[in-house]
Amino acid sequence: xxxxxxxxxxxxxxxxxxxxxxxxxxxxxxxxxxxxxxxxxxxxxxxxxxxxxxxxxxxxxxxxxxxxxxxxxxxxxxxxxxxxxxxxxxxxxxxxxxxxxxxxxxxxxxxxxxxxxxxxxxxxxxxxxxxxxxxxxxxxxxxxxxxxxxxxxxxxxxxxxxxxxxxxxxxxxxxxxxxxxxxxxxxxxxxxxxx
Amino acid sequence: xxxxxxxxxxxxxxxxxxxxxxxxxxxxxxxxxxxxxxxxxxxxxxxxxxxxxxxxxxxxxxxxxxxxxxxxxxxxxxxxxxxxxxxxxxxxxxxxxxxxxxxxxxxxxxxxxxxxxxxxxxxxxxxxxxxxxxxxxxxxxxxxxxxxxxxxxxxxxxxxxxxxxxxxxxxxxxxxxxxxxxxxxxxxxxxxxxx
Lengths: 195, 195
Prior knowledge:
alpha+beta, homodimer, 5 helices, 3-stranded antiparallel beta sheet
C-alpha cells in the first residue's frame, strides 16, 4: 500500500469495531516515514512458585522510539494438571501458546475489518495442538518435544459479503506475529546464571 | 534412560520442590509401557470483545487415553497497548508467547531438579523478544511479522554445585515443549467459517 493510498484511507475510515482507525493509519504513516519507530521489544518475567507452578509478570516494553509501561502490571500463572504431575493452579505453558495464536489473529481481524469499513458482529475461535509426550519424557529420540501440529478455526460474522469476511481472516493470518512465530523458526537463546 | 533405571530412581526419590517425584516416575513408566498414553491434545477458545481486546478460555484437554477437564475453567484476556492502537486491557498475544517459554522451562527445572534430588531455592527468569513492526504493518516485504529473536535468562539457586544446577537448566531447555515450538517449525492450519 503506498503512502498516498494510506492517507486517502485515513480520511475515509472513521473508528469502527472499537478500533481507532484514524490512529491506526496515522501509526502506519508515522512508521513508513521513520522506520526505526518500528523497532519493538516485548518482555516478561517469571518466578518459580512450587512444583510446576510459576508466576509471570508483564510490565514494560520498548517501541516507537521510547520505553513504555503497560496501563498496569499484568500477572499470570502457569502450572501442569494432575495427570502431568502438577496441581492445576493455572493453564499449561503450551496452552498459553495456543491462546496467543488465536488472540493475535483476532486482534488483526478487528483492525483489518475496521480499515476495510466492515462492522464486525462476532469473531469466535477454537484451537487445538497435538503433542506426543514421549518427547518431553525422554522416551523416544524420534518424537519432538513440542506440538506436532496446530489447528485453529475462526468463525466471523459481520456486515460484508462472505468472501470479504473470509479475506479479512486470511489477511489477519498473513500479518499475524504469533502465526509467523509458530509456523516459522525463531532464534531462541537461553542464558543461565547460577547462585 | 532405560526402563530399569527409571524404576530404580522411582524408589530413590521422594517428593521434592513440590514435585510428586514418585508420581512423575510412575507416569514415565506408564507411558514407556503403553506409548498411546503419550498422545495429548491441548485446546483453547477465544472470543473477540472489542477493538484488539479478546477473551480466551481453557477448559479441556485429551491425554493419557481419556478426556480431562481442568480444575476450573481458566480465562485470560489479550489486548494491544495504546501505542499499538489498543486499550491495554491485557498483555499482547506476543507477550503471552514469551511467558509461555519461561514458564515451560521453569516447570521443567522443578521436575528435573526433583528427579535429581536437588532442592531448589529459587528460579527467576527474564525474557525479551525483538520485533520490527514494518512486517505486521505491511510496510516491508523483507521484514517478518514475528519475533526476529528471543533471549531468555534463568537464575537458579539450590543445594547443588553450580555445574549441576546449570545442567538442570540445560536439560529443561532440551526437553521444553515451548522452546521446541519456538525454535522449530510447527505446521499451523487456520480454518475459516463465515456467518
